[in-house]
Design a protein that fits this description.
Length: about 475
C-alpha cells in the first residue's frame, strides 16, 4: 500500500515517473529498522504487554499504527499535497516495519534450528504474501469500480488490516505475565494513542527539515540522483571496513559489546570478522531484482495498456497461487538441501521473473500473458524470499534475535532500495539514450540478482567465532 499500489495511484494523478521513483525511498525505512529494533528487545508496550507479553504487545501497537496511517491515506487520496502523501506513507512503512521486527524476533525464538526454521518461515511467508496479494489486488479492484476510487480502496484495506487486532486481543495470556485482559487492553489503547500522535508529529517535523534541506541543495525532479545514490551505497561498507579491526579486538567487558543499543551489531562483526563484509555484500545484492521491480513494474504494465482491474485480477488468485507454491517449495528446500544450492536456485528463479517483464513488454496486450508474467515473478520471489529468510535467520546470534535479524534483513535491502528510488530517473535516462528504458531496467535488475551468486564460494566458508560472553549477560 506504500509501494506498488501507491505508485499506480500517483501515476493515475499524473505524477511524473521520476517523482514516483523518489517515493520508492519510503521503502528505505524498513532498511533502517535496526535503529529502533533494540528497543523492541529491551522495552515493552505499556498496557498491552502486561497481558499479551512483549512480542505481541509490540505487534498490537503496530497494528493500530498501520490502521490509522492507512485510513489517513484514504482521506488524502487525491494526492493534491504530495508532502502529506509522503508523510503518511512513511508512517505506514514505519509501523509495518515495527510489526515485522516483533514478529521476526518471535519466530526466531520459537524455532532456532534450520529444520524448524524452514517450515515456520514458509508458514510466515504464506501469511505475509497472501496478505500482500490480497491488499494489492483488492485495492486495485476496488479503485477501478465506478464511484469508488482510491479513497475507498485504501479504507477497505485499512478495515481488513484492522481485523488482526481483535484476533490478537482474543489470544490467551502470555505465560510470563500476570495482568488482567480488560486493564491491559484499556491501558494499551491509551498509551498507543499517545505514542502514535507523538510519533506522527515528530515524523512530520523531521520530514519538513529534510525536504527543506533537499530544496536548499538544489534537488528537484530534474536532478540526476543516480551518481549520488551510488556514492551513498558505498559509505556503509567503507565505514564498517574501517571499524572492523577495532571491533575484533574488543573484550567481552567492553561497553560497545555490552551496550543495549549497539551491542547486537558489534557482536555480528566480532563473530564473523572480515567475512562479515562479504556476507553483507552478498545479502545486499541477492534480492536486488525483486526490490527494483517492485516500484516500477506496475506503472510499466499500466503503460502497456492493461487496466487496473486486469492488473488486480493478475495480482489476486494468479499471484497468490504462484507465490504459495514458490514459498512452500523454497521452505522445503531450505530445510533439506545445502544452503549454497538453494540460494542459487532461488536467485535464478527470481531473475527469470524480472526477465518476464521484458518478455511481456514485447507481446500484444493479452490478460493471459499478463498472468504468465505475474506468475513467474511471484513464484520466483516467493521461493527466493523463503530461502533468504531461513539463511538470514541462521546467521543470527540467538542472544540477539530481534536486533540482529532486523540489522541483516534491513541491510539486505539498503542498496536495492537506494537504487530503486533512482529507478524512474534511470528509465528516463535509458529512453533519452535511445534504448527501451523499461526493458534495459528490468534486464539490469535481473542480472544484478544473479551477480550475488559470485559470492557463494566465499560465504560458504563463513563460520562464526565462538562467543566469549558470560552466560549471565544474556538477560
Amino acid at each position: 500500500m506504500f509501494s506498488t499500489v501507491l505508485s499506480l495511484r500517483l501515476q493515475a494523478h499524473e505524477v511524473g515517473l521520476v517523482v514516483i521513483g523518489f517515493f520508492a525511498w519510503v521503502q528505505l525505512l524498513p532498511t533502517f529498522k535496526f535503529v529502533w529494533a533494540p528497543l523492541l528487545d529491551r522495552y515493552q508496550v505499556p498496557g498491552f504487554s502486561r497481558f499479551w507479553g512483549k512480542r505481541r504487545g509490540w505487534i498490537m501497537l503496530s497494528q493500530l499504527g498501520i490502521f490509522t496511517a492507512m485510513a489517513a491515506m484514504a482521506l488524502t487520496a487525491s494526492d493534491s499535497n504530495l508532502q502529506i502523501t509522503a508523510l503518511l506513507a512513511v508512517l505506514l512503512a514505519f509501523w509495518t516495519t515495527t510489526l515485522e521486527v516483533a514478529a521476526d524476533a518471535w519466530r526466531i525464538e520459537l524455532a532456532p534450528t534450520q529444520e524448524e526454521q524452514g517450515p515456520l518461515a514458509a508458514a510466515n511467508l504464506w501469511g505475509y504474501r497472501t496478505a500482500m496479494v490480497a491488499a494489492g489486488s483488492g485495492a486495485l479492484l476496488v479503485a477501478d469500480q465506478p464511484g469508488w476510487g482510491w479513497s475507498a480502496a485504501y479504507m477497505v484495506i485499512a478495515a481488513a488490516a484492522f481485523l488482526a487486532f481483535p484476533l490478537l486481543v482474543a489470544l490467551p495470556r502470555d505465560p510470563d505475565t500476570h495482568g488482567r485482559r480488560s486493564a491491559a487492553l484499556g491501558g494499551g489503547l491509551i498509551a498507543s494513542l499517545v505514542i502514535l500522535a507523538v510519533f506522527a508529529v515528530a515524523t512530520g517535523l523531521i520530514g519538513a527539515l529534510l525536504l527543506g534541506a533537499a530544496a536548499g541543495a538544489g534537488m528537484s525532479a530534474e536532478t540526476n540522483v543516480t551518481p549520488y545514490v551510488l556514492v551513498a551505497c558505498m559509505l556503509p561498507f567503507l565505514a564498517m571496513a574501517a571499524a572492523l579491526p577495532r571491533i575484533r579486538g574488543l573484550p567481552p567487558t567492553s561497553r560497545a559489546r555490552r551496550s543495549a543499543a549497539i551491542g547486537p551489531y558489534v557482536d555480528f562483526f566480532w563473530r564473523y570478522g572480515a567475512m562479515a563484509l562479504a556476507l553483507l555484500a552478498f545479502v545486499s545484492i541477492y534480492r536486488m531484482g525483486d526490490v527494483l521491480a517492485l516500484n516500477l513494474s506496475k506503472p510499466m504494465i499500466k503503460q502497456l495498456g492493461y487496466s487496473l482491474t486486469e492488473i488486480g485480477r493478475a495480482d489476486s488468485y494468479v499471484a497468490l497461487i504462484a507465490s504459495i507454491v514458490g514459498v512452500g517449495l523454497g521452505g522445503w528446500m531450505a530445510a533439506r538441501w545445502p544452503q549454497a544450492l538453494t540460494l542459487t536456485i532461488g536467485a535464478s528463479f527470481a531473475a527469470f521473473g524480472n526477465f518476464g517483464f521484458v518478455w511481456l513488454a514485447h507481446q500484444p496486450v493479452d490478460e493471459a500473458l499478463l498472468y504468465i508474467a505475474t506468475a513467474a515473478d511471484q513464484f520466483g520471489n516467493g521461493m527466493a524470499g523463503t530461502i533468504f529468510v531461513v539463511y538470514l535467520s541462521l546467521l543470527v546470534n540467538p542472544r540477539y534475535p530481534g536486533a540482529q535479524y532486523a540489522f541483516l534483513s534491513g541491510f539486505a535491502f539498503l542498496l536495492p532500495r537506494l537504487l530503486s528510488g533512482a529507478g524512474g530517473a534511470m528509465v528516463e535516462s535509458f529512453d533519452r539514450a535511445g534504448y527501451r528504458g523499461f526493458d534495459l531496467f528490468f534486464i539490469l535488475s535481473g542480472v544484478l540478482s544473479l551477480a550475488a551468486l559470485l559470492f557463494l564460494p566465499l560465504i560458504a566458508r563463513a563460520r562464526p567465532r565462538p562467543s566469549d560472553m558470560p552466560e549471565e549477560s544474556d538477560s
